[in-house]
Amino acid sequence: MGGAVSAGEDNDELIDNLKEAQYIRTELVEQAFRAIDRADYYLEEFKDNAYKDLAWKHGNIHLSAPCIYSEVMEALDLQPGLSFLNLGSGTGYLSSMVGLILGPFGVNHGVELHSDVIEYAKQKLDFFIKTSDSFDKFEFCEPSFVTGNCLEISPDCTQYDRVYCGAGVQKEHEDYMKNLLKVGGILVMPLEEKLTKITRTGPSAWETKKILAVSFAPLIQPNHADSGKSKLVHLPPVAVRSLQDLARIAIRGTIKKIIHQEAMSKAGNGLKNPPRFKRRRVRRRRMETIVFLDKEVFASHISNPSDDNNNSEDIEEERPEEEETKPSELKPDPPVNFLREKVLSLPLPDPLKYYLLYYREK
Questions:
Q1: More confident site: 286 or 220
Q2: Which intervals carry biased composition (Acidic residues) (predicted)?
Q3: Are the CB atoms for 174 and 139 separated by under 8 Å?
């Protein structure tokens, strides 16, 4: 049993492998994946498997394989300020990565069937905001989750720029999913055992692209046995940012610009010699058959006439030449959170400093 890419020793190595296999292809997606450690969304006793390219399920908690999330993030073509709806939002791992790209003026909503998973997602979100070293590198669009069946969303709900469904969609529900999209929006979902990207090009016009062969557990149908009536899911309202929030965003943005300017000034005053590079032969290959795990099957990219017929290719990769060996006792310094240091150094009341830092523990 194996995944689309090799297992990593840590989150960064997993992302390196996904990049090498070309599942991650854009800088924005790479930054989001590196910012959030996949292991943080696992229960402690299962973290040894966090960096394998496999799905994981425990009770109602479920994570898709990293290669699937990579393809979803790339297909969604996320941009700052867009609105996003995650159907079957689960642990919130995907929603949080999306929130890093959407930025402070985006909309980030999730619908999850199981209330215990909603609580788990909220705990993981709170942990990320309060403790992650990478949080201050972004302005975050915090996801909001509601409990309910995503096939019972109220018909008067707003439409979204981007929609993802994390369960198999039956053909009879395709139009229902499409109607959640704005014109110009993108929907990504498993449809007829293919991860499918649908773009709404007009009020009644669509473009469809098959991305991957997959097999997801199907959407759970609404159960009206108890009352005979549907329980409509009301999505969170699209709220306007408070003046306090807007001020915090503006101040943090200004401080980041100052830090960047100071760093550029220091670099200009003492330029270091650029690293020398040597070439290394790397053999890349595409995987054809990948994995079956807990009703989720992952396969390689669907063949395209324009693709190279070869399954592998030799490439040359530039790597920095090894510098002089450093004494083994020397360890790299931990990364410095310059934004936090700058805020704490400002002549401001402590409550205002803590507000600017989102009351983070680190």
A1: 220
A2: 310-324
A3: no
Active-site option among 6, 64, 83, 89: 64
Nearest alpha carbon to residue 157 among 112, 109, 94, 98: 109
- Which residues, other chains included, contact 35 with Cβ-Cβ below 8 Å and sequence gap of 6+? 97, 100, 132, 134, 135, 137, 138
Q: Which residue has the higher pLDDT, 281 or 230?
A: 230
With b for 16 or more beta-carbon neighbours within 10 A and e for fewer, the 189-208 pattern comes to bbbeebbbbbbbeeeeeeee
- The tens digit of pLDDT for each residue in 100-157 reads 999 999 999 999 999 999 999 999 999 999 998 889 999 999 999 999 999 999 999 9
| Two tokens, residue 359 | 């009351």
Identify residue 257 by its one-letter amino acid code: K
> Rounded to an integer, what distance in angstroms lies between the CA atom of residue 22 and that of residue 201?
27
CA atoms 40, 43, 48, 51: torsion sign: negative
Give 61's pLDDT tier (boundaries 50, 70, 90).
Answer: very high
Instruction: Tell me, yes or no, if 64 is annotated catalytic.
Output: yes
The residue type at 80: P
The answer to whether 93 touches 38, Cβ cutoff 8 Å, is yes
* Mean pLDDT computed over 272-297: 47
Does residue 143 sit in helix, strand or coil? coil
Domains along the sequence of the chain with CATH: 70-238 (3.40.50.150), 240-263+338-361 (no CATH)
40-55 pLDDT, tens digit per residue, is: 999 999 999 999 999 9
Q: Where are the alpha helices (DSSP H) in the chain?
A: 11-20, 27-35, 66-76, 93-102, 115-131, 174-178, 243-269, 338-345, 350-356
- Residue with tokens 């020398």, as numbered in its chain: 276
Q: Is the pTM of this model over 0.85?
A: no
* Pairing mode, strands 194-202 and 61-63: unpaired
Determine which helix (DSSP H) or strand (DSSP E) holds 281, and give its type and residue range: strand 277-285
Calpha distance 92→118 (Å, rounded):
8
Instruction: Identify whether the C-beta of residue 31 lies closer than 8 Å to the C-beta of residue 96.
Output: no
Length of the chain: 362
Question: Pick from 117, 111, 116, 114: which is nearest to 145 by CA?
Answer: 111
